[in-house]
Amino acid sequence: MNNFGVIEIASTKTTNAPGWAYVPDRQHHHLPAPPSTTNRKRARAAAGGAPLSLADANARQEAKARREIEILDRDNARDVQIAIPPKPGGGGGGGGGISRTGGKKYTPNVRKILQSQKTFANHLDDYVALLSQQEANPATNNNNNNNNNGGGGGSSTPANANVETTGTRKSAAQRQASASAAVAASSKKPAAAKQEAEDVEMLDVPDTSSSQERQPPRSAILTPHPLPPTCPGDDDPLLASRLPAFPSDDELRALLAAPPLSYLEARGTWPPDTGGDGQQYPTRAFCVVCGYWGRVRCMKCGTRVCALECLETHQEECVTRYGL
Amino acid sequence: MAPARKSKVHRPPPPSRTLVLDNGAYTIKAGFVTDDGIADDSPRLIPNCIARDRDNRTYVASEIAQCTDFSEAVSRRPVEKGFIVNWEAQKEIWEREFFDDGAPQRCDAAETRLLLAEPPNALPILQANCDQMIFEEFGFASYCRRPAASLSASTHAAELVLLIDSGYSHTTITPVFQGKPIHPAVRRLDVGGKVLTNYLTRLLSLRHYDMRNETHIVNEMKEAACYVSLDFRGDLERTWKGTRGERRESYLSGGGIAKDYVLPDFHTRSRGIVRDYDPAQASRAKRLAVGEASEDVLTLRNERFTIPELLFNPSDIGMRQPGLPQLIMQSLQCLPHGLWPGLLANILVVGGNSLFDGFIQRLEEEVRKLVPDDCTVRVTQPSNPIINTWLGGANLAKDARLQSLAVTKFEYEEHGSAWLARKFASDVGS
């Protein structure tokens, strides 16, 4: 019953291979105490209780929390397969199937998309794999790029200055610098345009900058607003309000031209620089029974409860659930 | 990709109608705009799912209105995390709603332009799938895919808008400048209506009845009874029963927070009812034998406000993400300070979750605490936050600009889907 000292660590990866896969062992196993000692503490230490560091415990807790969140993210409580019902008026069955009853045929792309049973998690894994593959061998990027179906695999070579026009993806590290680098990129525009010119089909990038520069030079992008009428107290330093200077046109253009983040990068995360566990304030703990503040822990499993009454309720379950 | 045929030079005339589609994970918002600028006043809301009830009857999309018994209903949703993933189901729903004979909003795709709203940070492969399906399967005459945030922000008069879209799958923060999203500052919180409903289901199943298979009922309960607390600690204190043996006064009287929710039985009541907590009734119900009780009543106490609280403190369920106010700050950190006053004064909240009572006030309060106190913080909400993105889309559809943004089927066949992806990406950015 012991799982050979393998401790599950937190990972975000999900695998869906047709044959077999490594999956984390999600069952709680209790290691049998070796009979060589009668000392309780030594027995526990020998059984592998003590060698687990705090970090291991955290990893397990984290994995548990992640599982619970995954459960919260499901559409239905149990797994259900709902087949597409046949059309009411359409002649006979097969209305929702892959094979079409009418005369028109599916194009290969459409057939592939319809038959795909991939979930969002699968697509996300594919995307991450694609990115890591590109980082591993950037040389093959450019030939990939042309026939890539979704424009998904982008070139991430830094020499390519037209990233913002092609909307391709860059690696996370490069993207951090992109906001500032894009300022430089706007000055490199002629170079980018030259590259575009070689590709005849690139009709899609309208040169918006030229039309904007025809407007008055103060700010080409902002809508001009008339100044508010002057009032007698305008010069009074006590009434003056200070605003940070609005960014220049170049800065604005660079911001707007910056490519979109990838799905994973846009996810909000705890800032790494603040103290403690990466979060500004300690997380709040609640009573698992009634939802009030979790002020005491169950001594057996460490679950938080609010007070004695809820602790008793919890312990009834705690005993039966873990067989302690 | 079709082979280039030089002989066929004449192109079909541009379509005269635009189908504006906000294909949400929970509901589709759909309506037509003609080129004369005549739009439907409001879109039709179509549930975006295929549902099956207890008797194994299946309902597709708007057929759900015929369903009378939602107990143990299960559903299949083609949209995951805001993106159309399962096209098999989505195609069926679209066909039944738009293309079949007798469809409620029937149109001929070959004579219609499609304006589709999409959430930010889509995976490229899903975008490509979407483009291919729209042209190769449905055959729309012309098509334009726009970020939902920029459509929604266009209903707001300001030049700079900080758009918060809190929907079924997630909550996104997008700063929008002149109708264009500022991509490096887009942030996402993975808490949406679905997580809230499931969390309420979990709490109720632990504390009252087993509601795990009653997603529909719990969702109605959430919409009817939950609110965002402006004083979380105080409210929590008022709903606590007290230590062992103690029953606090505020607990017994309900403290102004406890509500009774009468569950639907689908014979006499098809929807639940929220009632003020009635202590007398609670004790009477205890005395009555089980058979005599004519209605199932759930008393909601701190469930009413701890659920929407997840939007502000996702760490309450162990989610390692900052709350909405902190996430707004993270988004602003990516931008020059000069943009802050404009964005903070024009925070626009759309999406179904913003309908919780107190959401706007709480958000405004918390953001105000975090930003420099010179900045005016103003959080606004459109009159109907659910359809706001669609209204923005309808505005764009009336505009002649859409002509240049959209791609015709001819262009798609000529240039292919990679070109299309680049065009939409550059139109949004530039």
Write up this protein.
Chain A is extended and about 85 Å long. Chain A is mainly α. Among the domains of chain A are: 1-69 and 116-134, no CATH class; 283-324, no CATH class. Chain A is 36% helix and 1% strand. With 430 residues, chain B is an alpha+beta fold. Chain B has helices at residues 87-99, 124-138, 148-153, 193-207, 215-225, 232-238, 249-253, 279-287, 303-306, 324-333, 340-345, 359-370, 388-398, 401-405, 409-415, 417-429; strands at residues 17-23, 27-34, 44-47, 50-52, 58-60, 74-76, 79-80, 83-84, 112-118, 142-147, 160-166, 171-177, 180-181, 187-189, 259-262, 273-276, 297-300, 347-350, 379-380, 407-408. In chain B, the strands form 5 sheets. In chain B, strands 3-2-1-9-10-20 form a 6-stranded mixed β-sheet. In chain B, strands 11, 12, 13, 14, 18 and 19 form a 6-stranded mixed β-sheet that branches. A 3-stranded antiparallel β-sheet of chain B has the order 5-4-6, covered by helices on one side. In chain B, α2 (124-138) packs across α16 (417-429) and α10 (324-333) crosses α12. At the A-B interface, α2, α3, α4, α6 and α11 of A face β4, β6, α1, α2 and β13 of B. Chain B: InterPro entries: Actin (IPR004000), ATPase_NBD (IPR043129). Chain B: It is found in: Cytoplasm; Nucleus.
Terminal CA distance of chain B:
27 Å
Question: Care to count the β-strands of chain A?
Answer: 2
Count of β-strands of chain B:
20
Helix share bin of chain B: 25-40%
Going by CATH, what is the homologous superfamily of the largest domain in chain B? ATPase, nucleotide binding domain
Class per helix and strand makeup of chain A: mainly alpha
Number of domains of chain B: 3
Structural class of chain B: alpha+beta
Instruction: Please outline the major beta sheet of chain A.
Output: 2 strands, antiparallel
User: Main sheet of chain B: which strands, in order across?
Assistant: 3-2-1-9-10-20
Strand content of chain A: under 5%
Keywords (chain B): Activator, Chromatin regulator, Cytoplasm, Nucleus, Transcription, Transcription regulation
Family (chain B): Belongs to the actin family. ARP6 subfamily.
InterPro entries (chain B): Actin, ATPase_NBD
Main location (chain B): cytoplasm
